[in-house]
Structure formats: C-alpha cells, structure tokens
C-alpha cells in the first residue's frame, strides 16, 4: 500500500512503516526516544515494534494503565513527571504505541511538554488506525466528559502496521468498525455497501477497507484542519454517542461501553433524526439500523437513563453560543452540519433505537 500524503506528515503502512521510521531516525538528531504504552501494548506490541527499530539512541518506556478512565489530566501529570525525571528535552522524540487513549493522550503530552516535542503515532487498534491517530486531534477527558481538553497538533508521521490487529479482542475490532461505517455514511455509499456483506472483522479482509477509511478521513481533514465546517461531518453520531459513552463511563451501575459501541448507537439515533429533519430515506434508515445492530448487537438504553444522557449534551465540544448542534444526513455522502434538534425528537429516536 502506498503511503498517504497529508500537508504536514505521511501515513505509512506495514513494512514501509519501519523503513520510514528508521530513515527518519537517522536523518533527525533526536536526543532520546520515549515510547508510551499501556500494559496491553507493552506486552503484545512493544517487542515487535522495538525489534524493527534501528537506532543507537537511548529508548525509555513509559507505561500507563489501559482504558478510557485513564485518559485524564492526572495521567498526563504522571507522564510529564516521568519525562522530566528521565531528562527529556526539547529534542526528545515521543512514540505513542497503542489505541486511541494512547495516541490522544500521548499526542497531547508531547504537544505540551516543554511547549512541544516531536511525536510519532503508532496506532495498534482499528479505532486508532482509522480515526484517533489521523488528523492531529490530541487530548484527554475532563472527568467523564469526553475530549474536553486538547490541542490540534500533527505528528511527524503515522505508522499503520495492521499486524498489530491480531492482538485485539473481537469487541475492540468492532469498536473500530463504527468509525469506518461513519465514513461510509458521510462520504460514500459505495464504501458503506462494503460493510453490509462483511461477515467477520479480521485483518486480511480489512487492510483495503482500513486504507480507504484513512483516505476518506484525510481528505476531509485536509480541506478543514481546524474543524470550522467540513470536518464537523466527522462528528456524525458523536453528539449523542459521546453523551452515551460519558454516561455509561460515569455511572457505577452500568457496564462501560467502548467508544465505537456508543458511537454505533449514536449513528442510529442521528440517522433516525435525519429522516425527520433533513429528508433522509426511512427505508435506508432501517437498513442502516439493521447493519449496525448485526455488527454491534443492541444494548438496551432504559427510559430512566435517557434524560441524564440528554443532559450531558450541553458539554459537547461542538456547541456554540449555548446551542447544541448535530450533524445529520440528507443522503449517503451528503451531510448537514449545525442542526438543532428538539428533545422530544431525541426521545423519539431512542424509542426507535430500542424497538
């Protein structure tokens, strides 16, 4: 697979990854390398990654605990302190080896330590490959509120080695599929249609779909890097999806949902709302619901949980001037941004989801 060029960096794939990073390490005079991992990527991905690195530089490993609950300023403080104690300087390089939590948090830590050090993203989950590591968004949650603190800052390069996907449990693979499905809805019905016959989410079948998904996201980000207009379409399903994810994360009586599981629900809700406000086909909405539920199942959202979820919408980072904005669909590949939605229609959408 050919490398994908963005205006600020390159995205490399599989064997090309290691050729490119080794060339880069020889060309740039870094003082030291820091690799950020969690306990899972430390065990399952780090040995393979290090075995492909060719450098005489000192490499330090910094490990954080896995899971969205650790995507916090407190964790950042721990990593900043570790960098300081290990004598990182402005010429240090940080390599973020992991899923969306690692790439989001690691990118933010690198972007803010000593006012910014270089970093490279090495996503190891499907979600991080097709979404979190692409486009320069970095940041952390504020308590249970998603992605409230962060900066947009691009990495030196992104290395997508799909062999890391063999280490993932099935639910993590499904979580990444949600963002790929979203790319089909907002950008290309042809791409969406490829998922209606997808029987299993395993690496060999997915390589081409991953590549195409990254191309779609990159093409949108390149046109609107700071999310003033077009890039907002990438938030399809995320307004309610993030609220659902935050609610399940903060409620001790609930089993937390993975990001993609919550976004899958959010996309069904947004698609139903689209049939009411922007003229999206009701028949296609039902097909989309069936496809998503076939992949993700249907976790029920009880009636008493819906109002607290709606209350969380006021914290959505896309809000402006106190107004909550949704991305809706007019047709496949044709989105409408900055749509306001009444609460009674949101309640109706939850009823449709649960039916």
Automatic annotation (TrEMBL):
CDD domains in UniProt: DHQS
Gene Ontology MF terms in the entry: 3-dehydroquinate synthase activity; metal ion binding; nucleotide binding
Necessary cofactors: NAD(+); Co(2+); Zn(2+)
Alphabetical list of InterPro entries matching this protein: Dehydroquinate_synthase, DHQ_synth_AroB, DHQ_synth_fam, DHQS/DOIS_N, DHQS_C
Domain 3-dehydroquinate synthase N-terminal, first and last residues per copy: 62-174
The protein's Enzyme Commission number: 4.2.3.4
Presence of keyword Transferase: no
Broad class of enzyme this protein falls into: lyase
Pfam family, one: DHQS_C
Keyword tags: Cobalt, Lyase, Metal-binding, NAD, Nucleotide-binding, Zinc
CC per GO annotation: cytoplasm
NCBIfam families: aroB
Protein name: 3-dehydroquinate synthase
Species whose genome carries this gene: Bizionia arctica
